[in-house]
Amino acid sequence: MLWKEIMIKNFLTLTFLTLVLIIFSNSSNTSFANYPTHLNGDKNYILVDGHMGVAWYVDRSSLAVQSYNPPSYIIAVNVISAQSAIDDVQDFYNGGEGVAIGIKTYRFSYDWNSRSMYVDGGSQGWEYLNPWGCWAETGIRMPAGEMAFALAYGLRFYGEFVKESYDGTMYHPFDNDFYESI
Prior knowledge:
Blueprint: H1 2-27, E1 45-51, E2 54-59, E3 64-69, E4 72-84, H2 89-93, E5 98-111, E6 116-120, E7 126-128, H3 135-138, H4 141-153, E8 163-164, E9 170-171, H5 176-180
Antiparallel strand pairs: 1-2, 2-4, 3-4, 4-5, 5-6, 6-7, 8-9
């Protein structure tokens, strides 16, 4: 009887761990994958991030190179925040129409030699955007800065970086599909 109880306990533990693994593996690297790649099909609005029913799009038509002094660059770009046009998050996730709910101009500074990206923090100065930082530190801003650089120069800024994860697999801050919408 003890052997059966141990087997059942092991089976339940393994089932629980498998479910947890499935849930977390499906949520990583796809944080914005289901939002429309281009807002309402307009190729000027390129998806760079999404979270909890809101998606952020770089406005290609607003891109302005403010300083071209290799290896230093400054680029400004508008970022549009959008949500479901019919107040249905699931519809928006599945490619439905979106409506702009905000617009913000970001200024990014890049140093190619040190491969360091910064965002203009106004009175607080330039804030470093760590390519391996968490979403709370870099979300919206770093992907918008990466897309702005790729649009302006046809090059990846942080996109070529590689890091080894705890399980030995290699990964980049941005997958190849991030750049395919250009």
